[in-house]
Design goal:
heterodimer; A: 4% strand; B: alpha/beta; Amidase signature (AS) enzymes; 16 helices
Chain lengths: 95, 486
């Protein structure tokens, strides 16, 4: 499959990645080969098969809606790149 | 006394008899890491101070008479397991400075058992790779031949055990990431049934496939560790509530009269001839032990890798969307708006293979392609799973090669993702179906180890370990030591 530069840029945008212009042909080549490879699936006769979402036929387990965790915000925020007053700081979103 | 390449069972016995202390065992590991790891690169982080403190505590517990079999035995965790207060990087620049605020359930349980963690092992970035070359911290070398890959993604764990740096290391297996490196490094690698071990605190890659497991020297050691880490955990909603059997007690069961299925597709032209011979010889050992060998078929095997490379990147692209440079992980320094912050942080933080998988996953989930790829792959996944289940109507266990070849050279496949992916041909179906599998050493081909893979039906861990143990009682391939690990 041939992916155009536009395809690569579109997929990268959906994935929130930036691809350097110089690297676009390499990405197009390798992703194209991967897509050719997974295109083999089209040949499989899957008829009425139900898609398998999970290896075990498990039901989602529910738990009582009880408070089990204590507030550890400051501790968890030690890993944050930037915080202020217990909040995460990001570039201005609303003008 | 030399304690390198001593099994957990043997180390535990020495501790119980008081012939060695945990501090001595731990110090021996640390010394060996200091001597050999600069060349092997099996560890991302070694934690000598914490390890020696834990060793002293274990010695105290043993003296006070409240130690268990594992108390005081050293080990290492793959750097995908969250370890409280210790950097947990997943071999990515994205998490280079991430210090986990909590322990994974596996870490917590082994800590409670008194095992001594000496450090975190190297791996493919976010477990995406089959050669360990995608690690941000550089490739791991195979102790059997340092020009070769140890396999991946748990390559650091496999190399560390093979070289005798630790008797056991944890791993995770999403498409073969425990079994393939175990085969390539000549050790035992066990991946239990999906849901048998809690995934809580394991950095998510592909959530319907990820499963933790053990890289060790013997199936007996794997059983001992399984006993501690298997079982229900309310913090993982997919963790099974099935009771945990006594794995150690099940090891010695006779395999006489049991049926071993050998999928004929595992022996096609893709398999290296002498590797195939080693596997056939292993089957002869089972015949001598009284098992019956039956040919079976997995007609959709050729679709397993393409299916995996749709399902797995799709789940990965979703799981890795959490890395946005805001709450934790790498953050780009020069972004003026939020979208640029996301994009730059992710672009700088992720390596090539991770970006490629995120993009593949994004593509197969995108509007217009979802039905053709993702939905189709989930249907084929059912087909592949049904093939395996059908085999287990006729046989007790499946046996075959773990990989098509022995360890390949570093750099050999790195530029061709599809060739790299095909290395998982014999292992991925087992993940797609969520079944337990083990790789055990079964021969040396041109100086490099070959692996025998055994696969059982859901929750047949006991049986898989039993078959592996029976083989290891009858052969000594698992005792072979790499020259580079001396």
């Amino acid at each position: 499959m041939t992916l155009s530069a536009k395809d690569i840029e579109y997929i990268a945008h959906l994935a929130r990645l930036e691809i350097d212009q110089a690297d676009v042909p390499a990405y197009a080549d390798k992703l194209g080969k991967i897509i050719d490879f997974i295109d083999e699936l089209a040949s499989a006769d899957t008829g009425e098969l139900v898609p398998m979402a999970h290896p075990l036929q498990m039901r989602q387990r529910l738990r009582p809606d009880d408070v089990t965790e204590t507030d550890q915000r400051d501790y968890y925020q030690e890993n944050a790149p930037e915080t202020a007053g217990g909040l995460y700081v990001v570039p201005r979103v609303v003008e | 006394m030399s304690t390198e390449r001593l099994s957990i069972v043997a180390q535990s016995r020495l501790l119980t008899r008081g012939e060695v202390s945990s501090r001595e065992l731990t110090q021996a590991c640390l010394d060996r890491i200091a001597a050999l790891d600069p060349a092997l690169n099996a560890f991302i982080k070694v934690t000598p101070e914490q390890a020696l403190a834990a060793a002293d505590q274990a010695d105290q517990r043993r003296r006070a008479g409240d130690g268990g079999r594992l108390t005081g035995v050293p080990m290492a965790h793959k750097d995908i397991f969250c370890t409280q207060g210790v950097a947990t990087t997943c071999a990515s620049r994205m998490l280079e400075n991430f210090v986990s605020p909590y322990d994974a359930t596996v870490v917590e349980r082994l800590k409670a058992a008194g095992m001594v963690c000496v450090g975190k092992t190297n791996m493919d970035e976010f477990a995406m790779g089959s050669s360990n070359e995608t690690s941000y911290f550089g490739a791991v070398k195979n102790p059997w031949d340092q020009a070769c890959s140890p396999g991946g993604s748990s390559g650091g764990s496999a190399a560390a055990v093979a070289a005798g740096l630790v008797p056991m290391a944890t791993g995770t297996d999403t498409g073969g990431s425990i079994r393939q490196p175990a085969a390539l490094c000549g050790i035992t690698g066990f991946k239990p049934t999906y849901g048998r071990i809690s995934r809580y605190g394991i950095i998510a890659f592909a959530s319907s496939l990820d499963q933790a497991g053990v890289l060790a020297l013997t199936a007996e050691d794997a059983a001992l560790i399984m006993q501690e880490i298997a079982g229900f955990d309310e913090r993982d909603s997919t963790c099974s509530q099935a009771p945990v059997p006594d794995y150690m007690a099940g090891l010695e069961a006779s395999i006489k009269g049991k049926k071993i299925g050998v999928p004929k597709e595992y022996f096609d032209e893709g398999l290296e001839a002498n590797y195939g011979k080693a596997v056939q010889e292993a089957l002869d050992v089972y015949r001598k032990l009284g098992a019956e060998i039956v040919e079976v078929s997995l007609p959709n095997l050729s679709l397993a890798v393409p299916t995996y490379y749709v399902v797995c990147p799709a789940e990965a692209s979703s799981n890795l969307s959490r890395y946005d440079g805001v709450r934790f992980g790498h953050r780009a320094s020069d972004a003026d708006d939020l979208e640029t912050l996301y994009k730059r942080s992710r672009t700088e933080g992720f390596g090539e293979e991770v970006k490629r998988r995120i993009m593949t996953g994004t593509y197969v989930l995108s509007a217009g392609y979802y039905d053709a790829y993702y939905l189709k792959a989930q249907k084929v996944r059912q087909l592949i799973s049904d093939d395996l289940k059908n085999c287990f109507k006729r046989v007790d266990i499946l046996a075959g090669p773990t990989t098509p070849t022995t360890a390949f050279r570093l750099g050999e496949k790195v530029d061709d993702p599809v060739q790299m992916y095909l290395n998982d041909i014999y292992t991925v179906s087992v993940n797609l179906a969520g079944m337990p599998g083990i790789s055990i050493p079964c021969g040396i081909v041109d100086g490099l180890p070959a692996g025998l893979q055994l696969v059982g039906p859901h929750f047949a861990e006991e049986q898989v370990l039993n078959f592996a143990h029976a083989y290891q009682q009858a052969t000594d391939w698992h005792l072979k030591t790499p020259a580079g690990g001396r």
